[in-house]
Amino acid sequence: MTSFSVESVPLRDEQLEIWSRANPRAANWPVVYTLTGGSSVYVGESLNMLGRAKQHRASPEKRGLETAHVVVDETFNKSACLDLESFLIRLFSGDGAFQVLNRNDGVIDADYYRRGDYQTTFAAVFDELRALGLFSRSIPQIENSDLFKLSPFKALTQEQAIAVEDILEGVFEDLGTDATSTSVVRGAPGTGKTVVAIFLVKLLVDIAAGRELEEASSDSLFSDFFAPGYGEVLEGIRIGLVIPQQSLRKSVENVFKKTPGLDPSMVLTPFQVGSSPEQFDLLIVDEAHRLSIRASQASGFQNRDFKRITESLFGSDDVSKTQLDWIRRKSRHQVLLLDEAQAIRPGDLPLETTTALVEEAGMAGRLYPLTSQMRIRSDEDYVGYVRAALNGNGTPRGFAGYDLRFFDDFGTMRSEILARDDEHGLARLVAGYAWPWNSQTDKAAFDVVIDGIELQWNQRIVDWISSPTSRDEVGSIHTVQGYDLNYAGVIIGPDVGVDPSSGNVVFRREKYFDKRGKRNNPTLGITYSDEDLLKLVINIYVVLLTRGIRGTYVYVVDPLLRDRLRPFFDRAHVSTAAS
Questions:
Q1: Is there a domain that residue 145 lies in?
Q2: C-alpha to C-alpha distance for 337 and 192, rounded to whole angstroms
Q3: For residue 453, what are the domain limits?
Q4: Which residue has the higher pLDDT, 283 or 156?
Q5: CA-closest candidate to residue 361, choices 335, 330, 323, 329
Q6: pTM (2 decimals)?
Q7: Helix (H) or strand (E) holding 552
Q8: In sequence order, what are the beta bridge partners of 267?
Q9: Which of 316, 346, 370 is at the close of a domain?
Q10: Are residues 129 and 174 in the same domain?
Q11: How much is the pLDDT for 389?
């Protein structure tokens, strides 16, 4: 299916008229088009390209656009055009060469007749637009970028769309009253919680800007919220996106910097929220399970600030108050995106707190579960399978289309990860914090040493995955939680093993080097047992083992645990089990 053409037309009335007279599909055929000018791009679809182009010329924000590139195909229909429009918006947003002027109306990732054939055409359309200078990188290069993965222009799954729509309805119902509310979006690794968070912020900003549809249409998923009246409700609204993890927060700030209507200042730390002199109308908190209780912070300044903020907000230094309490005190409405099973440090919100949040939201009708796996290329429950394997439960089985391998030789696994990186990019080694970080103070020192192979931990925390030295380093949990890889080479270190006498999986405190990951909490009178810390370390390995989109490779240091886990991750074994 290669019947398309890309026709370039100056965005001026006389040229548009000449083009339309020569092209019978200009005013009565579904097409997709891009409008470019300066550093901006707009992507649209229409049954009447000539009429739509005239509307765009009358729009103040599009007056600087100079050229239309119209994709015409005799086989196009409305569904295919909506899909191509969404495809190009996502790629423009991920490429970063242009600022995307599109409003975030919402597109569901919906199937339609012969979609696979059309998507082959879409790739060819991209190649032609790239040849015209509209893209600076290939599709794989764009799809590997944080700008693409964290784009606010993602096509939503059905359950993501339902969550966003229901949250919006609740927000608009409550904002005109004195009501307060807490909504919870709950999902396992890879279900798209961060996508929902970023999408919500962009959608609310666009609605608040009062940008009405240029033609009456119900094609856009959230078009009803752009009707008159909704923008007025959001007038002057103060919205913030709170992200506890430094690395993910910096990546999202970069996306907001390149997206019209968004600003990096909207992306906040919990400390910035607590210290803000103003109240927020709505705070959206991604990875809310990583909010902190009163515990040892990353620096003395943060320990001091935790006390100061709590005193300011509650009148005294109540050590039972958490960053979640700050969030609730500083905002009328909250949307919390969380997974109770992704807490990785004793200082994270305890399980009883996140469980109570889920229960409260469920009783209030504001709980939105995400269950569809967006990351792992497998239809089976791979995330649950990994957790069961690490906990000594479950039955080995296969995962069709997913490259799952187990290695007894670390050097071989590293060579295979490097080969996958050469082929697809974003293939990295990651590990539990089971080796000291010697290279933090001695840049010539090695950290992770296995089978005579000497490697260093990640030499940067922010945007480590894309850093030029990352393929030759080992990433910790703090560099990859919330991110995607194409392939993850996971090293399960000596911090966990099998007790020969009991046969149980155990935590080895002396082999765990995250100081804040095992420190007791004298302020709250909490002493963490090895069993308590084992649960958190298992959570860490579940996160590491669920980063890979295309595949996961596994090496286990402890010999007894290696024998225990081999049947679950050995490709030959699980393929046999699957058959």
A1: no
A2: 10
A3: 382-578
A4: 283
A5: 335
A6: 0.92
A7: strand 548-556
A8: 241
A9: 370
A10: no
A11: 94
